Amino acid sequence: MKTNPGRFFEDYRLGETIVHAVPRTLSGGERALYHALYPARHAVYSSDEFARSCGLAASPLDDLIAFHTVFGKTVPDISLNAVANLGYAEGRWLAPVWSGDTLRSESTVIGLKENSNGKSGVVYVRTRGLNQRGEVVLDYVRWVMVRKKRLDVAAPEAVVPKLAPALAPEALVVPEGLDFSRYDFTLAGEPHRWGDYAVGEMIDHVDGVTVEEAEHMLATRLWQNTAKVHFDATQREDGKRLIYGGHVISLARALSFNGLANAQMIIALNGGAHANPCFAGDTVRAWSEVLDKAETAAPGVGAIRLRLVAVKQGAAPFALKGEDGKYLPEVLLDLDYWALMPR
Amino acid sequence: MKTNPGRFFEDYRLGETIVHAVPRTLSGGERALYHALYPARHAVYSSDEFARSCGLAASPLDDLIAFHTVFGKTVPDISLNAVANLGYAEGRWLAPVWSGDTLRSESTVIGLKENSNGKSGVVYVRTRGLNQRGEVVLDYVRWVMVRKKRLDVAAPEAVVPKLAPALAPEALVVPEGLDFSRYDFTLAGEPHRWGDYAVGEMIDHVDGVTVEEAEHMLATRLWQNTAKVHFDATQREDGKRLIYGGHVISLARALSFNGLANAQMIIALNGGAHANPCFAGDTVRAWSEVLDKAETAAPGVGAIRLRLVAVKQGAAPFALKGEDGKYLPEVLLDLDYWALMPR
Amino acid sequence: MKTNPGRFFEDYRLGETIVHAVPRTLSGGERALYHALYPARHAVYSSDEFARSCGLAASPLDDLIAFHTVFGKTVPDISLNAVANLGYAEGRWLAPVWSGDTLRSESTVIGLKENSNGKSGVVYVRTRGLNQRGEVVLDYVRWVMVRKKRLDVAAPEAVVPKLAPALAPEALVVPEGLDFSRYDFTLAGEPHRWGDYAVGEMIDHVDGVTVEEAEHMLATRLWQNTAKVHFDATQREDGKRLIYGGHVISLARALSFNGLANAQMIIALNGGAHANPCFAGDTVRAWSEVLDKAETAAPGVGAIRLRLVAVKQGAAPFALKGEDGKYLPEVLLDLDYWALMPR
């Protein structure tokens, strides 16, 4: 059997590190495709000139290009037999990714807990994305529910890692050289600075995008994500292709430009839930809530912690969960992240 | 309210200059996408080697990539609340755009005329696209009908700019160094030179393309055009997404290769009307009429003025307007431009 | 008549060489699009770092990018009036294609045979793809059935070239410098080396992709392939757009990663049949059969000859032909090629 059946729950060992396959060199091609697939307009990622005026050598590749590329490589080893993608924590962007960089990924198993039914279990991994110099550019924890294949294999000792509910401001890593003290608000597209946002503020990002099959498949392939349900209409009984959760993340983040144009760079992922599946034909909208704010040591740079919620048609304004505490059926994504803004 | 509601008619002041947001660095990625989205084959924009044989340093980015990029930036400030895109005039490509260039846009309000119903008005802007050295690469006039929000605001004094019906040949700017004296007609794809075209000649470009939703949205996003009607199927009562008029321009121009393969570079836009809306599922064809010809001072380079008409299924050959003087329902686009050809 | 009607059978002369139009400069943009359109993951074509560890200067553009680009240029001269694409033979990749290279194509007519009905004939061409230094990067024979237009033109003397059923191992050209002696199987994605594959072995590549209209049109346009049936839904009575056979080749080759991740580079095309048409909505799967193996002089590099079969929904495992010797209706492609693998 030469093909990859994927790993099952009993195949993971606490502490082992899995080196994921197929490193990837990124270029202006991936950047152009990203901007064709999502209405991305944050100026640092759109213009070399703007990025230089902010102290960077050039425009880096979008923060989520780095995320998707690193994530995609983990799929064949981590989530090919996953029943559910349960959560993210402690994600940090540690260095910008530039056109020409080559990324690879590795994951360490930091937790294992078999479910009481004996048929599946939760695997916790800390994934690192590395560039061609071996520098870690991204680091995050993800946990997924994975099926067991050999039900007779004894459950491992349950180990659940203690994860921070959110990255502390002191833990955030601002890109080297970033300087927002000569920030051009006109070219960036909005006048609102860090000081203009209040904790608790809610922002409806207004715009919507109706999603097509070709788009999410182009995106998901570009990240070399191989999960069958995204591509093969014969995998589900309803004949639908499940849209990669990361596609919804990128859509919602791009839509959040309208109201958060100056939340330029994502630097931490505190948590996230793919609340409901998204399918082609859905019209995706987004809203944000300001969760926290913090200063940074970089000139003119503030950090803002945001909840980013993606919803589909039929959603009520700012509605998130029902009285039962569960996500409403129109909610697609509930993401918690830190971004950098001019102060 | 942190999101952009767009400007309404009463928000424009005669003479004011609006600096548009989000400069954009273009690369080989945008070029590849352009050639995947449109059947573009003009050799100067396809091959570095061919462009060098014509005196250029390399293959520039397609003339319409420059146009769409500059245009897209104006949408949030000019046409977010536009009822209709009424016309173009006096458009000139003043310098080629190269891979690696960063474009930004600004528009000066050169005319304002409130409609007699008091509910909307026409805004005339002269838009300039600039590269990272501040050089103007593109300059054109556009006028749109924009809604009023505060109906009680008094109408401004009506000012309608006097616009040339077409650029005079003397006003055309040939790219520096362009030299068609060693032009390779075989590699360019057709033997017909400037002298082979007669004023009044009509050319049916034969080929057709059936348009898909994913394609026009990829294109329109790539130019960071944010108009809701192109992306959000819930915006119109009929559930259709209106295709960006510029998508039809690029489709028709690319189709015109078959018969006008040597009309290599667009250098002026004399006028244009988006006669009827285009929707996914339409099969777009094109025909051209030679309107004028002129010599230029560049070696071997002639100018040809063309009417480019895009039509959809059901159109009769070369039919444009009905007896009532109105565009026939199958006509999508009526464009008037100058291009450069080998003499 | 300025448009290209295409050539008919009576327009070809034995021995003539046709220089095809529109050279094309390729960049990281084409590479990114290729990886968005197909689930391509072979490491040599994904990572500059991996390619360097294999003795190459950088990651070349995918072997099939070279093929499609060279092939696309031949369409306006060879297959615009083709009734059927009958076969390929003696195809060899002679040098890698790099980002920045400019490709052009030319074809020599090596055989002509009018059909007994007098209404069409078979044209055999040997096509060469050349880079900007005039080096041949790809060379293959293709034969197509082309309609006659002037039925009264006398049939030419029938000449059918003698073509090798498969390239002999001695004829294969390994890219200069290729060295698999320090090959990283972990990063490549699978542990199976050349020695692990046996002649006669069959591999089911498991994964499937449901194809969309937008995808195959983006791909086919990117290669500047102008055949009307791929783009224009009004060309066929059933309103379907026929998918370019090369799209199926690339899909199947990319799917074959799962089981043949180390069959890194295609270096010869022995033959191929587009057994049945593919349409949007079809779910494409693939299987391979090991046909032959050979050593090469390059360090650590073995050659493997593979049959790659693409099928659509409803196909039985490894089924190819019926009792009548004809391809089963679910078979889309039967391709015979040589690839390079680490020994």
Topology record:
The structure is a homotrimer of 343-residue chains.
Chain A: E1 17-19, E2 24-25, H1 28-37, H2 48-53, H3 63-78, E3 82-93, E4 102-114, E5 120-130, E6 136-147, H4 185-188, E7 202-204, E8 209-210, H5 213-222, H6 245-255, H7 257-260, E9 265-273, E10 283-295, E11 301-311, E12 331-342
Antiparallel strand pairs in A: 1-4, 2-4, 3-6, 3-9, 4-5, 5-6, 7-10, 8-10, 9-12, 10-11, 11-12
Q: SS-based structural class of chain A?
A: alpha+beta
The chain pair with the largest interface is: A-C, 38 and 48 residues
The multimeric state of the shown protein is: homotrimer
Radius of gyration of chain A using CA atoms only: 20 Å
Distance between the termini of chain A: 57 Å
Please provide the ordered H/E string of secondary-structure elements of chain A: EEHHHEEEEHEEHHHEEEE
Number of strands of chain A: 12
Shape annotation of chain A: globular
Summarize model confidence as the mean pLDDT of chain A. Answer: 97
Main pleated-sheet profile of chain A: 12 strands, antiparallel
- In the predicted model, the low-confidence regions of chain A spanning at least 5 consecutive residues are none
Which band does the percent of strand residues of chain A land in?
A: 25-35%
Number of helices of chain A: 7
Roughly how much helix do the residues of chain A carry, as a percent range? 10-25%
